[in-house]
Every structure is written in structure tokens, then in C-alpha cells.
Design a protein that fits this description.
alpha+beta, about 290 residues, Transferase(Phosphotransferase), domain 1, about 35% helix, 3-stranded antiparallel sheet, Phosphorylase Kinase, domain 1
């Protein structure tokens, strides 16, 4: 019987099963119910707090008796059980996604006593793009044009993959773009429900700033919503400040870049049931610009 097909019982722990499965693959093979049990029995060991907000946190963790590092993001959610189950169902899709441009998800579980959801995912030692550009800014520098081009290309390829699977990211911002130790760029927090996006907006300051106008107005998300947020993100890291300055301060340039991104021909962003255009083709045009 394979490791991933067996439920961990109260008398078993992950350590007892490592003989049947290489420890480096354990986090990839666990079912959501296994993650739930691991959390309830104290097998998730927090090594370092990576970030914390009003009602949530991100930590670097490891499973007891194993060596594989993973990130654990915990977000407070609505107490309504139906809402919680809806979020869990939607997040379960993330585990089926596989691309070198997106963070690999390992599992999701509920913390019922504190009304929160935890997501175990690939640990990216390079940190977030938000921290990287702010560190450069603090040292009187900024991210160069060539690295930004590579970052943009990786993000767009990640979005192309997600959109090919009919997944809209919904929450693109510098803190949701991660770097591996080797310097690879990956998207995280993709495909989350509107309910969870709202929870994260309250938890981690800044989420709402990157929302597309249609999202702010309560309208339906679309492919162009991701493009809007991406445009803001690229402009921010290239100029070391958020593109829309406080009232009274001069506007940033080139604002024309953002205008161009959000005004790409609608025909190239129409869903395939209408004009049979594949979502994965949406960004091939953009990459040639």
C-alpha cells in the first residue's frame, strides 16, 4: 500500500512510515487528512516566523522526524462551516497544479478551534519580491531592468499555466511572488476563493491596493484583473514605490505602461467557449512586447 493512500491514525505518526517513502517526498504525498492529523498531534514543527499580520501568519516548518522544509500559511476565515468547506474544496485544486513558475502546494487543513485555514506549500528560501525590492531600496539601490524582465517573464508564464487550467490568480502583488534559493521566480496563493482573498486582505496589509477596478466595484474577476495587478507590481518594484502616490505627490512614470497592459485588445483575452482562444495564448502576445 502506498504512503499517500493510507490515513494516519491516532496510534501512528509520520516517522513510522518513512521506511516506505523517502523523507524528501513525504510532504508531497500527504493527503489533507494526514496534514490535519499531523497538526492535531504536534508533528508540525515551526522553525521560523516568516511573516505575520493581524489575523494570520506564515512560518517555515518541518514535519517531525523529517528534514524537508515547507512554508505554512495560516489565515483566519469565516466561522460559517459551509464557507470553510467551500474554501477547502477550491484550495484542493491547487495540489493538482504543477509548473516551475508556481509554488507547489502540499495540503490544506482546518483549525476549527480558532476558525482558520492552514496551507502547506513549497518553501522558497529567497523570500518574497516585496522584501527583496525593499531591501534594495534601503541600500539606495533598485532592481535592474534585466532582472525585472526575467521576473515579468516568469510571472507571465506562471499565469499562462494557471489560465490554461481556468484558474485566475486574484491576488497578484509583490509579497505573492517568491524566489527560490537558486533565483527562480514563482507565484503563490493562486486560485483562492473570493472569501479567502477577502480574509487575506484583512490579514496582510496591501492586498486591496493591487485589486483591479472591477474587483473593487464588486464585479466578476477576469483575466485582465490579473494583468492589472501584475502591471502595478512591476511598476512598483521598478520604481521602488507604489505606482499610485498619495494625494499631493507627483505621479510616477511611465504610467503609459500600465495603460497599455490593461488596454490589450479584448479579443485576445476572451474565454475559449466564445472565440475558441486558449487562455494559455493570452500572454504569448504580451511576452513579445
Amino acid at each position: 500500500m502506498s504512503f499517500s493512500s493510507r490515513k494516519i491514525t491516532e496510534k501512528q505518526d509520520i516517522h513510522l512510515k518513512t521506511s516506505r517513502c523517502d523523507s524528501s517526498d513525504i510532504v508531497k504525498d500527504l493527503l489533507d487528512e494526514d496534514w490535519q492529523h499531523a497538526a492535531q498531534t504536534g508533528q508540525i514543527i515551526e522553525l521560523e516566523k516568516l511573516g505575520e499580520g493581524i489575523s494570520g501568519s506564515v512560518s517555515k516548518c518541518v514535519l517531525k522526524h523529517t528534514k524537508t522544509l515547507f512554508a505554512l500559511k495560516t489565515i483566519s476565515v469565516d466561522a460559517n462551516p459551509k464557507t470553510q468547506q467551500q474554501i477547502l474544496r477550491e484550495l484542493s485544486i491547487n495540489k493538482t497544479c504543477s509548473s516551475k513558475y508556481i509554488v507547489q502546494y502540499y495540503g490544506t487543513f482546518m483549525n476549527e478551534t480558532i476558525c482558520s485555514i492552514s496551507m502547506a506549500m513549497e518553501y522558497c528560501a529567497g523570500g518574497s519580491l516585496d522584501k527583496l525590492y525593499k531591501k534594495a531600496k534601503a541600500n539606495g539601490a533598485r532592481i535592474g531592468e534585466h532582472p525585472i524582465r526575467k521576473i515579468a517573464e516568469s510571472i507571465l508564464k506562471g499565469l499562462s499555466y494557471l489560465h490554461s487550467r481556468k484558474i485566475i490568480h486574484r491576488d497578484i502583488k509583490p509579497s505573492n511572488i517568491l524566489m527560490t534559493f537558486e533565483g527562480h521566480v514563482k507565484l503563490c496563493d493562486f486560485g483562492v476563493s473570493g472569501e479567502l482573498v477577502n480574509s487575506m486582505a484583512k490579514t496582510f496589509t496591501g492586498t486591496s491596493y493591487y485589486m483591479a477596478p472591477e474587483r473593487i466595484k464588486g464585479e466578476t474577476y477576469s483575466v485582465t484583473s490579473d494583468i492589472w495587478s501584475l502591471g502595478l507590481t512591476l511598476m512598483e518594484i521598478s520604481q521602488n514605490r507604489f505606482p499610485f502616490p498619495p494625494e499631493g505627490e507627483p505621479p510616477l512614470v511611465p504610467i503609459e505602461l500600465l495603460n497599455y497592459i490593461v488596454n490589450i485588445s479584448n479579443l485576445e483575452l476572451v474565454d475559449e467557449p466564445v472565440n475558441k482562444i486558449k487562455w494559455s495564448e493570452n500572454f504569448k502576445h504580451f511576452l513579445k512586447i
